[in-house]
Amino acid sequence: MEFFRDTDIQFMKHRHRWVTLSAAFLLLSVFAVFVRGRLNLGIDFIGGTELTLKFRSEPEIQRLREIVASAGFGDALIQTFGDTESGEVLVKAPIIVDSEEGSQQQIVAALDGAFNSAVTGLDLNLSGTEALTELLLGEDPEGRGSGDPTVAHQRYSEVADSILSVRRSKGLIADWSEVQGAGVDSPILEALRSSAGIGEFSVLRVEYVDPQIGGELRRKGILAVIFSLLGMLA
Q1: Residue 195 domain-assigned?
Q2: In a domain, 129, yes or no
Q3: pLDDT digits (tens, 9 = 90+) for 94-142
């Protein structure tokens, strides 16, 4: 079946016009990227800190941006992560100038001050096993201080690990019923209620990329693109 007849299109006749137009668009693109704007590179290429946070309820992204900006990270990228009802948020912050450390502590501290002002004592959603063990040793709700300190440490360490296993499995401890469901005895639960609290968010994952490593990845990425273009041109 023939749809077109006498198809004599002079492609090469107008080549100079289209080459000129293509070159103009190419120069405009280069100007837009390197003069008027910048490439939106991830922390893998520029270095920085990436945190995945889980909140008890879905937070307001604009409020998070304001809190993180008040900590000195106005350029941080903040977006929801996963399902909208999961309460998970991804925070990407650039490197700190003249510092080899990531920005995790500053960002978490700023969010902690904004969301957990009502929490007194140790935050079960932000503490580690050792910190919780030391708290239980200090409170000693089971009266093990008079016995072998090694046995007492082992016992309270097991309790702390059992409590934080709830956070590891669910991402966040929502209320005291989940702590009690971890097999915690009443004396320990009462001691925790008086000396600890349950915050509004937890840190699921932290990644830090050194700026030197990021620069090396960026250089290799640019070279890969250039050699790929040269190969296609050849």
Answers
A1: yes
A2: yes
A3: 776 655 556 888 999 999 999 999 998 999 999 999 999 999 999 999 9
Q: Is residue 18 part of a domain?
A: no
Tally of CA atoms within 13 A in the half-sphere of 207 that contains its CB: 11
Q: How far apart are CA 222 and CA 146, in angstroms?
A: 65
Enumerate the H helices of the chain as residue ranges: 15-31, 43-46, 61-70, 104-115, 129-139, 149-170, 176-180, 186-195, 211-233
Look at the chain and report how many structural domains it folds into. 1
Residue with structure tokens 């003069």? Answer: 35
Q: What is the pLDDT of residue 113?
A: 93
| Cα–Cα distance, 160 to 167 (Å, whole number) | 11
Q: Who contacts 191 (Cβ-Cβ below 8 Å, separation ≥6)?
A: 136, 139, 141
- Residue type at position 107: I
**Cα(231)–Cα(234) distance, rounded to whole angstroms?**
5
60: left (phi > 0), else alpha (psi -120 to 50), else beta?
Answer: beta
Q: Is 199 a residue whose pLDDT tops 80?
A: yes
Domain assignment of residue 199, yes or no: yes
Instruction: To the nearest 10°, report the CA torsion of 103, 131, 53, 48.
Output: 20
Q: Are 8 and 170 in contact (CB under 8 A)?
A: no
